[in-house]
Every structure is written in structure tokens, then in C-alpha cells.
Amino acid sequence: MQRCPDVTNDKHVTLSENYAASSETSYAESFSGTIVTPTGESPGGVCFDDPSLTSFALPEIHEQLQIINDYFRHVYVHPGSAFLSEVSITKRCLNGTISEVLLLAICALTATVLRYPRYYPAQSTCWIQKAEDLLWAGVESPTVPKTQALLLAVLCRVETGNVKRGYMLLSLASQSASALRLHYERLDLDHHSQEVRRRLTWSIMLIDTYFSEDFHGGGVAGLPPASLDGVSEGGLLQYYIRLTVIRRDVLRLTRNLHLQVKETPQITGLVEVVEGMLKSLKISEPPAYSTQELQRYANSRWLVRYAAVQLGWHQSHCDIYRLFLLGYKEAAPDAMIQACEPDYVAQAVALSISHARTVINIIHDIHNLRVPLVSPPRDMCIGGYHSSRLLLYLSGSEPKRKDQEVTNEKAVSLARSTLAILRPLFETSPVLGETIEALDQIITAHVSGVRVPPGDFANEDRGAGSRIRRPQYAMAIQRHTALGVHSALRQAQFHDDNEDAGEDAGEIVTEASLHNNGPNIWSAQGWLQGFSPGSSHDCI
After folding, report:
1. CB 3.0–4.6 Å: which of 50, 202, 359, 362 could bond 383 by disulfide?
2. Which pTM does this prediction carry?
3. Quick one: which of 540, 520, 485 has its CA closest to 213?
4. Which residues of 510-532 are buried (b: 16+ CB within 10 A; e: fewer)?
5. Is residue 331 within 8 Å of residue 399, measured between CB atoms?
């Protein structure tokens, strides 16, 4: 049986904690021969009016090394941030050859995520602004370190709530990757350089899903191996990337099914294809989830990544099986569900309940570890939200078979306990904080008997107050393009001036004219024939 890697002697303390002891020797310590310590100021003892603390100047070398060490212990473990090499970055910092813009971005993001009392928010804001200034000054000459710094700047801006700026910087990072042709293999490079390029490309795609959950990139020739620096994490990053690709395909399928306004063919076969892709990941085999295995990861830096993979695995099943929940907003059209075999639908409902309960159980198991999560995985919040919603919805639906039974009391109890765990972890998050509030409102409405929409396409009613009554096709397309409550792009709230721009249009497009003159996007048969899970196919 495969055991989880690197799970012993992996404790680590951050710059903002007391450094009385540490059971792990960091890369910085092994290279410098001394224990890295902070300057000694107590939390709250720093006055940000001090000009020396609000400049672009980076701290002394020993603190730079500690910040880098903290980055790789608490930020790098998130799949979207796994694109730097710990050994390479640390060595370059020690010998002074590290890119200035990359060092600024690392320090800024780490100080922001870990909330260093000495550097956050004044100094970290100066660092990320300086990094962006340097990036813009050389925007016409992209390099790998600059692209890495851009991604760190995206994460830093999102972490501080400036989601709009983060989203626009991400587009620049994507263009830099295209200019550097990172999505192509370079067989003339050494293994380490090839791996850095692969990880950077995949990280851009993963971070893109933070905004819309529907990245449009094509991928690279290979998935990242289990190790970049010789310390294996058991292939967790590979699993997570594959899960993300599958969840993207399921999301595209769900959105496109809602474009249909006519009776459509059965989707049973297509769901079996996606289900087969999930099984091919072999996550159901070791490393399978168990409370004992989770406990083995308790003192490992890979706890966050292990939790993200397990939560993502079960949430992927929920995403598939909820297609068969009659009346659920993310479900397939009613006519399509009713055309399927009743036993097949019943089994899908039962499996959706099983996986939703497992997601909630994993969240409770993580909580029961009593391990401080300095930077918890966003999959905890997203999985807890969707699973709680699903169970609450099913608890109020018509009586089902025994294996589908979810009592109202049990569903409410699970949802409330899950919310209590997630609130202190994500309530202050600029992006996921709204997800916590949405779950709170759903639970309150459910308990009070107020019927709320059972879905997550949160901006579906955005045009309800519009002075123009939109035709059915426009409503369908809006639902197709709507964003979930946990989408960073939705939090950005970019101003949409399309309505003003079209005021003087001389021709009114009707649904009938679209059917007569435009492409038949309403044909499910045509779309289903062209859909291939794992492809870059998109409707609209």
C-alpha cells in the first residue's frame, strides 16, 4: 500500500510565530549553517509610520530566506502556486542572483497570506507595487522569472481584495506564457528547466479557474512529476490537475445543457464517459481517503494538497451526479432526466448524497486534527458550500428510496456544523467570504421555510431590472455564462456597458430570427456529437 510521503518531521513555524523550536531543518538553514530568526519585534510593536517600513526596500538576507522558507511551507502547497523550485530560489537568494521582481513578488505574497505583523499591509503593498512597476517597464520582453512574478502578483492582488487588477494581470501572464511558448516542450533543455516551464503553464490554467472555473488553454505535453526538488509529494499535483480538467468539462457540459430549449437526447452515455475518466485517475485506489491517512499528513506541509485532492475527487462526483437531481438548478433539463431510466436516475441521486456526505466528513476530519491551517485549501470552502446546498435541497424533496433518504434535521445539522468550521477560515477572504455568507443565508432560509433558488448561477437575475425585456435565447445565454458565488471574476464586478452601447441599434434581434438566420446552437444532438471530455471544445 502506498504511504503518504514526507509526513514526519515536517513541522514548520512562520516569521510571525515564536521561534523557540522547529523540528525541521529548512533549506535556508542547511545552506547558511545557521538558524534563521526574525528581528525580534513583538507583534503589534511595529509602527507603520516609520518611513523605513513603508519603502520598497526588502528586509535583510536572513529574513528574505525565512520568508522564502515560509512561502514553500504554506503557499507553495496550494496547487496553483506550485511553479517555483525551492532549492533553486533559495540558492539564488543566497548568492544574490535571484531576479529582483521575483523576490519582491515572493515576499509580498507570503507576507500577505501569512499576515506578518512587521510587513503586512504597508510593506507588502509597497513590494507588490514595485514588482508591478518593474514588470510594466519590461512588458515587451517577457521571461520565465517575470511570468512567475506576474502569477504571484495575481495571487497577491486577489488575496488583498483587488480582484479586478489580479484578473487583468492574469491575462498578461497568459500572453507572456504564449510569447515564451511555454505550452510547447523544449527537449533541448535540462529536466529541471522543462519541469519549471510545465508547472508554470499548468499554474496559469489552475489560477484561471479561480476566476471562471472554465479555463480555455490547451495544456502541455506532460503533467508535472511528483517532485521538483527531490522531495516527493506522492503525485498529488498530478491528481489535482487531472481533476481540474474533468471538473472543467463537467461545468461546460452543465452550462451547454442549459442552452437547450427543446427536448434533447439522453445524457446517460455521456455521463458514463466522464465517470470513466474519474475512475481512470485511480484515486479510489491508494492513496484512498481515510481518517488514518489524513492524520499521517497532519504534520506534513502536504496536508493542504492532500485535502484539496480528496475534496476535489468527491466534489467532482457531486458535479456529475447532480445533473440528475430533478429541479436542481445545475441539473440537466427536466425532459432529459425524465427520458433516462428511473433506476439510473435513482442511483445517481444516491451517489450524489454519498459523495456530498464524504466531502462534509473530510471537512470535519480536518477540523478535528486541531492543526492550525495558516492558508486553508479553497476546495474546503467550495466543497462545503456545494455539498451542504445539495443535502439541504434533497432533504426537502419528495420521498425517495431508502438509500436516498436525507432527513431535514440531519441536513441542517451537517450544514450548520460545516458553516461553523468554514466561517473562521474563509469569512474574511475577499473572494470566498461571500460564499460563506451565501451558505449562511441558504441555511437560514431553509430552516425558516422560505424557498430559495436551489442553484449557484448567482448572477442569473442580473438583468431583472432592465428596461428591455430579453427574449428566451438571451436568458438562456445569460445562464450559460453566469458565474458561481465563489468565482473571483464575479467578485470583481466589472462594469458592463453593453446595454448602453446598443441603445441606438437599428435592428432588434428576436429569438425567431436567430433560429432562422443564425447557427443552430439549440441542437443538443449536434453539440453532444461534438463534445469530447478533455478537449478544448466550447459553445459560445
Report:
1. 359
2. 0.77
3. 485
4. ebeebeeeeeebbebeebbeebe
5. no
